[in-house]
């Protein structure tokens, strides 16, 4: 079974069974997230309630799974990257809460329910996001499964990932850069800052936890870069073709925006997703390794082509 | 010259000259902050501009100075705590930007100019605050003056300080706890979460950088606790007696709120500030050590009794 055939056969789920590659791992991440958050009866109750609510809504947990699979791929312990992966999920969740705010995307739905500010108030949403980002650093600092030097390197990696050249810059540019100037090159760099950087942190961090050398970390980064692009293309496509009920968040929010779908049309976007995944997987050699299977599964599970 | 006499003689500045105890240190912190932030011509320009604007406005730099003086007090190098102190200032600044937001205190003035969201927009203010908090962790991770184990301990300390039991919880409670329930005990715990925790992080972190043992760290924490209370009382008092021009931020914002000034009146609040500082300093032995002189200077410089 080739990658291309899997991607073509996206409607025939019965022809291969990849679901269990990631379901058990997602369950483990969910359990660990629950444990890493303050208990439901901790004060101040409404803030903790909001934080737990948004974090524990069902999610794909892509970043934690990538971190764990990366660690295993580079010869490390998969579970050694569990807490780091959860820290990434906390940061990802914080970024969703912030992006949804009235002063940003002003979104209504997220992960199948009302956005956090609609449900708990804007002040609570802002404080919950800040607490989540901050908590991610505490989780890494306290991660006894990882060497102290590596933990510190992970803190540095995350700060780069989120900060002035990462997620924050990406979100700012997405809000403020004029639509008229969005060509392929600008969109690629924007997508990289909005999505690619956190995928890269997952892959590179996992490799670091496994003790992989710089060359391997660079391979991990290139893989993440391709995967991030494919994922963002798929996200744009979903926004274009799907319904809010199906994907649990606002759709058609890109109607006034330039995306790869508006630049290229649906067919070319689909073709590019497939090519980009092929490129990513080709760099990893064995198309049957758990990481490759997960990536195939992810795009199938996520409804690629459906 | 006793502490009490200094506090009584607050109008006769000529009778003692403490100003230079902290002026040079403040200048050093300002220079270092400027260097730790992205350069003014870095992209995305408006975001970096907002971040530099709010961080580089004149401030008292209390937390950096406490960290540096704490390190020196416990036998360490004062400058070894400079970057940690700057990280605290970044976090403090982020907390001011967030507290000022329309969905929180909806403030107009901060550090002598318009609040960040009034000047640059709400989206920019939120992203600037998040970037500042996040950058603080990067600064600590990259601080070559501090041992790797200590850096990691500082990350853990900061995450505790900001998070679910620290600044974020304090701000949430301040916004949401009913005024009717604010008695001395509640206000004390609230002030501790809003102000005391970051003073404690400065003192304890400084002690950790100096290699001080647990007992010394506990003394540092108790000192910070007293100082934080005095500082918050003074802040409440300023809100009550001062003008926006004089202190560079909104005043009378507590008019509908219960503070120690409304519970106790002005005279008792002033007396308690003096007592609390005496208690703090008494725990440190020598009333002429740089840390003691700085605290006296701070309350004089800040216009205590003026």
Order of helices and strands of chain A: HHHHHEEHHHHHHHHHH
**How many DSSP-defined strands of chain A?**
2
Topology-level CATH name of chain A: Farnesyl Diphosphate Synthase
Shape of chain A: globular
**Which band does the percent of strand residues of chain A land in?**
under 5%
CATH class division of chain A: Mainly Alpha
State the low-pLDDT regions of chain A, or none.
8-17
The averaged pLDDT of chain A comes out at 89
CATH architecture of chain A: Orthogonal Bundle
Q: SS-based structural class of chain A? A: mainly alpha
Q: Can you tell me the number of structural domains of chain A?
A: 1
- Largest interchain contact: A-B, 49 and 50 residues
CATH superfamily of chain A: Farnesyl Diphosphate Synthase
Q: Could you characterize what this model shows?
A:
Two copies of one chain form a homodimer. The first copy, chain A, is mainly alpha-helical. Chain A has helices at 3-8, 19-36, 45-56, 62-73, 82-100, 116-120, 122-141, 148-162, 167-176, 184-209, 214-241, 244-247, 260-264, 266-282, 290-301, and strands at residues 109-110, 113-114. The first copy, chain A, has a single domain (3-301), classed as Farnesyl Diphosphate Synthase (Orthogonal Bundle). Chain A has a two-stranded antiparallel sheet. Chain A starts with a helix and ends in a 5-residue tail after the last helix. The relative contact order of chain A is 0.14. Residues 8-17 of chain A have low confidence and may be disordered. At the A-B interface, α3, α7, α8 and α9 of A face α3, α7, α8 and α9 of B.
